[in-house]
Design a protein that fits this description.
3 helices; alpha+beta; two-stranded antiparallel sheet; 133 residues; single chain
């Protein structure tokens, strides 16, 4: 299940250590992505990355390796402005399947992407109950 952390929703397959698979659902203002030089649209994104989480002296330290060829980021819903209710609706839609999607991602990134697409677009329809305007 996705848990709200500040202005995003997150899921981790384990609480700490190396090789923690972390899924996030979040709003992005879009614009130039300086890692791939593509212009990204405003809206809600879903991503999975592999991180290392350490706990020390009451602090949580999260690190990741850049350009690790082990990640997923996909545009989910266009939004001109940040909308907490719409983000929460998307979290409610994806949340029950996020553990399944992350487990698929561990062995087959394409299968994970396809499963996410099935959750968002059942029977080829648009995203359930979410208006884009």
């Amino acid at each position: 299940m996705l848990t709200q952390v500040r202005d995003r929703f997150e899921y981790q397959d384990k609480p700490e250590g190396e090789g923690v698979y972390k899924a996030q659902l979040y709003y992005s203002k879009g614009g130039m992505n300086y890692f791939n030089y593509k212009d990204e649209p405003r809206g809600i994104y879903f991503g999975i990355s592999v991180v290392k989480i350490e706990r020390s002296n009451g602090m949580v330290i999260e690190s990741f390796m850049m350009f690790q060829n082990k990640g997923l980021k996909t545009f989910v819903l266009p939004l001109e402005r940040k909308s907490a209710p719409r983000l929460a609706k998307m979290a409610a839609l994806i949340g029950p399947k996020v553990a399944e999607i992350v487990e698929l991602f561990k062995t087959d990134q394409n299968a994970a992407f396809n499963r996410l697409h099935e959750v968002l677009h059942p029977a080829g329809n648009g995203v359930l109950g979410i208006q884009t305007a």
